[in-house]
């Protein structure tokens, strides 16, 4: 076995992150250079040193190299709409006087900042005490998160009223105001290796979005099981819009709210299945794929033509599958494309059509609403592959989405 492959396996054992095969050469080249800088005689010696001391400072450098940092505030806006209009009000109705939120895998702090904005809005005028904890395995990313300064691209989905109220522009970056930053704490934790009990009291809401896709199935189950133990009674867990926890854990119940699937801790400790009133998670979505999706390093490092990291290629594959009526593949590809490039309104429209075709009306409506939000912000991004007689023009898409959501509350 080559030292580069040994390093890939070691990264998985220590962090749970499964690197895609195409990363092997780049990781090997990076590690060889790093070994030289650190004074090791060769790559084998560097890997051996990492194996002997999983807590060494060198792991901080390595994990910073392999983890994903590209994100934005209000990513997957339909989930935050669900939090604002359904989940948080319900938690307040239960008589809670405190709300604790955990953003697991928070990268540079975009998600904790979003939650702080949403909570401040929902809890204004109440005496409810609240806090947000952001954790990540990448200590360097956490240093950036503590600064709470974001690029224009990172805040492009923030509603204008929040952008004006909650941010100050400094040096071309958008800095979250101190009156919100004081509610956010950050800490480093390895979800796979470290005991999560150190995080303290139970959480009412846990965000674990687009984290599990980089773990193997057995690691996914263990992490979700451990997180479920930290959820307060009737607490909520949210994963990424394209993820599912079916068959991963029996202690969380899937519920559909406003076109979004959320997972709720069962009072008795074992899920009895979603009630008819809440909806049942579509079996066609399946469990999270056992083979994790390749992690995009950043938008500038995506491999040209690499299907797994190229939103255009994924969208094209999805469109081909849809034409063949292979809706399962189409859904997977469209979701993957939108994960990489969320403002592709054409792809989001096609995703809505596919969801509607398989009977997932709530999710379809959420996608149509998201299309309208994108078009209203004038932030839409167009793919030329959809230009043609078999695909509606922008104006037609907008009209169709407005019509289908007209009577939707």
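^ Assign residues to that structure.
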């Amino acid at each position: 076995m080559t030292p580069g492959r040994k390093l890939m396996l070691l990264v998985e054992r220590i962090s749970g992150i499964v690197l895609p095969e195409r990363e092997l050469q780049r990781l090997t080249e990076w590690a060889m250079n790093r070994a030289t800088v650190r004074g090791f005689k060769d790559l084998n010696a560097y890997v051996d040193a990492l194996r002997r001391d999983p807590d060494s400072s060198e792991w901080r450098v390595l994990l910073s190299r392999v983890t994903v940092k590209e994100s934005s505030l209000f990513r997957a806006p339909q989930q935050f709409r669900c939090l604002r209009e359904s989940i948080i009000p319900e938690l307040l109705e239960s008589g809670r006087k405190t709300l604790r939120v955990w953003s697991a895998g928070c990268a540079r702090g975009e998600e904790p900042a979003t939650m702080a904005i949403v909570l401040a809005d929902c809890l204004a005028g109440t005496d409810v005490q609240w806090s947000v904890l952001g954790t990540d395995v990448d200590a360097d990313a956490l240093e950036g998160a503590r600064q709470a300064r974001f690029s224009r691209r990172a805040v492009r989905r923030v509603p204008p009223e929040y952008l004006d109220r909650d941010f100050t522009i400094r040096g071309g970056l958008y800095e979250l105001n101190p009156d919100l930053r004081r509610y956010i704490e950050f800490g480093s934790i390895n979800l796979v290796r470290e005991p999560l009990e150190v995080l303290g009291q139970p959480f009412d809401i846990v965000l674990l979005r687009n984290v599990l896709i980089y773990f193997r199935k057995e690691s996914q189950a263990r992490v979700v099981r451990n997180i479920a133990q930290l959820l307060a009674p009737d607490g909520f867990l949210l994963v990424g819009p394209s993820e599912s926890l079916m068959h991963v854990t029996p202690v969380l119940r899937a519920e559909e709210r406003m076109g979004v699937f959320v997972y709720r801790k069962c009072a008795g400790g074992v899920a009895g299945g979603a009630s008819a009133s809440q909806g049942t998670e579509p079996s066609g979505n399946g469990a999270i794929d056992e083979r994790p999706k390749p992690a995009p390093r950043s938008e500038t490092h995506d491999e040209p033509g690499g299907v797994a990291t190229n939103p255009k290629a994924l969208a094209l594959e999805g469109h081909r599958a849809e034409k063949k009526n292979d809706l399962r593949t189409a859904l997977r590809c469209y979701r993957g494309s939108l994960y990489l490039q969320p403002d592709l309104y054409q792809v989001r429209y096609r995703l809505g059509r596919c969801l509607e075709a398989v009977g997932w009306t709530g999710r379809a409506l959420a996608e149509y609403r998201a299309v309208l939000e994108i078009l209203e912000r004038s932030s839409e991004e167009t793919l030329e592959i959809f230009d043609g007689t078999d695909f509606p023009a922008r104006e037609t898409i907008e009209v169709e989405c407005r019509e289908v959501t007209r009577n939707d509350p």
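Residues 270-308 have pLDDT under 50 and may be disordered.
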